[in-house]
Amino acid sequence: MDSYWFFEGTDLFKLLCPHKFKAYKRDHIFNAYNKNDYIYFQEDSANKVYLIEKGKVKIGYYSENGDEVINAILTKGELFGEKAILGENKRSEFAQSMDNTTSICPVGVQTLHELMRDNQSFTLKIYKFIGLRLKKLERRLQLLLCKDAKTRLLEFLYDLQDDYGHCCPETGDMVIIHPFTQKDIASLIGTSRPTLNIMMNELKENSLLDFNRKEIRIKK
């Protein structure tokens, strides 16, 4: 997930936001959500995709037993609801705001298809984005099904490193400044928050990493 407004060098907001295009500027709006507000539910009509201007959004579904399963937690600049582009008629997941300052720009599927029809480069970027998103989701589900909690945590940290990390020139450590709470991370790797705390502290005691609320430092 390229969560700082960029997808392989492309600013998703500038690329997709309707205010960029005169023909759609009049329909350009932002919707505000508070914490726990739903943007859409499972089985809702899928006729829009959404860009996050600010805030944090949880994507997931409810199992037959009523348990919440989290597929992704997305932040500023990211796109969701993208399966509507591929012809999904009803939502197979829910999208829920996770804070009180979430601002979303909805883009109608018809509008997006018109933009894609007129711009081949734009179309390729969109399909590549969707392909990578589905590939990452498939990999995460395989981890949940086949790997133990510690392995899932380590794989998650590797992903965070790719998405949010930078090398500290003084120490050579990988510094990861990320938007996730411990509760978010526990949900994403399919474990409890106490179990996550135990695993993180074990890694810290073994001098493999250090961490605080907003930063994880993987030791060289």
From TrEMBL:
One of its GO terms (cellular component) is cytosol. PROSITE patterns: CNMP_BINDING_3 (PS50042), HTH_CRP_2 (PS51063). Keywords: DNA-binding, Transcription, Transcription regulation. The keyword Transmembrane does not apply. Signal peptide: none annotated. The keyword Transcription applies. Residues 12-92 form the Cyclic nucleotide-binding domain. InterPro entries: cNMP-bd_dom, cNMP-bd_dom_sf, Env_Response_Regulators, HTH_CRP, RmlC-like_jellyroll, WH-like_DNA-bd_sf, WH_DNA-bd_sf. Residues 147-220 form the HTH crp-type domain. One of its GO terms (molecular function) is DNA binding. SMART domains: cNMP, HTH_CRP. PANTHER family: CRP FAMILY TRANSCRIPTIONAL REGULATORY PROTEIN (PTHR24567), HTH-TYPE TRANSCRIPTIONAL REGULATOR ARCR (PTHR24567:SF74). This is CRP-like cAMP-binding protein. It comes from Aquimarina brevivitae.
